[in-house]
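Translate sequence into structure tokens.
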Amino acid sequence: MRPSGRKLDEMRKISIEPNVSKHAEGSCLIRMGDTRVLCTATIEDRPPPFLKGTGLGWVTAEYGMLPRATNTRNRREAAAGKQSGRTQEIQRLIGRALRAGIDRVALGERQIVVDCDVLQADGGTRCASITGGWVALRLAVNKLMKAGICASDPIVDNVAAISCGIYAGQPVLDLDYAEDSEAGVDGNFVMTGRGRLIEVQMSAEGATFDRTQMSELLDLAQKGVASLVTAQNVAL
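Result follows.
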């Protein structure tokens, strides 16, 4: 029995509310169970210096957690004067994931920055950030299209992510914190709307796993991502 009472292949309740920021070119608030992330997308009319003159655009991301996103207060990283290794790893993952769904030639020489701020954490914050970040990115690109700045749509496919793991010896979909902290195997799966893999992060957290178990987790992830893609499209 999962702590939440969910079935092995049952996800938490998903909610994506678009256009929650009047200033950002694209924004949404994504809720996955008790995890809540505010995602905003900002269009910058110049690419990063290393892409100047190449005709290519860029999508990057920044990630952070509010001090009371968790059950105890975390010190603001700005107050510490540096980002943690975890924060840097997660925002690089988000950027890689979102770039996989973009035609950088069609985007042109500009940059879109996706900010993901965790308001409340209960497991799966990086997956929620990728899923919500794509919605914010889609809304920002829509404005470029409407203004006639991009001749063709730079978005080539949806991008979403879900966690899966082995909890109490069973493969489960969409881990919350209670499961994530006790899981024998933990994995994050990033996929396109067509089911193509972008990135897989899997690690043994006290128990090893075999190829059969990995395939079971992948099957769960495909089911979960399909549900997330549906939620993205409904929100838009």
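Note: The chain has one domain: 14-235.
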